[in-house]
Amino acid sequence: QVQLVESGGALVQPGGSLRLSCTASGSTLDRYIIAWFRQAPGNQREGVTCISSYDNRSYYRESVKGRFTISRDNSKNTAYLEMNNLKPEDTAVYYCAAQSYNGPGFCGPPLNYQYDYWGRGTQVNVSS
User: Fold this and answer.
1) Neighbours of 71 (CB within 10 A)
2) Residue-wise DSSP of 54-73
3) Is 22 exposed, middle or buried (0-12, 13-18, 19+ CB in 10 A)?
4) Per residue in 64-94, pLDDT tens?
5) CA-to-CA distance for 49 and 24, rounded, in angstroms?
6) Which residues contact 75 (CB under 8 A, 6 or more apart)?
7) Three-class SS of residue 75?
8) Which of 4, 7, 102, 114 could covalently link to 53 via disulfide, CB atoms 3.0 to 4.6 Å apart?
9) Which pLDDT score is estimated for 104?
């Protein structure tokens, strides 16, 4: 069983950048698909991006394409979400999630029910 802890959330101005980290313990990250979800006040939690464990193929929801980048460093048991050109609509609690699967296939779009392990989230606020 894997435990996930997110970090890196902050208040940032529109156009700014942040890098979120998701550090795993209890198991090695290389056997899991990793996804980032977010939940804004009054909204349902939505899948933002995911990265496969098999070949590191990634998926991005349309609204973040070209601005967000997901990556993983299995040697550090950590996944990252690099967020650039942030917009007020990116304001949300961001959650890291893991799905135990390391076979072929595309990981996206990430859906809540597919993921067994979740972090507690980190708050991202984009405001001037």
Assistant:
1) 14
2) SS--EEE-GGGTTTEEEEEE
3) buried
4) 999 999 999 989 999 999 999 999 999 999 9
5) 18
6) none
7) helix
8) 102
9) 82
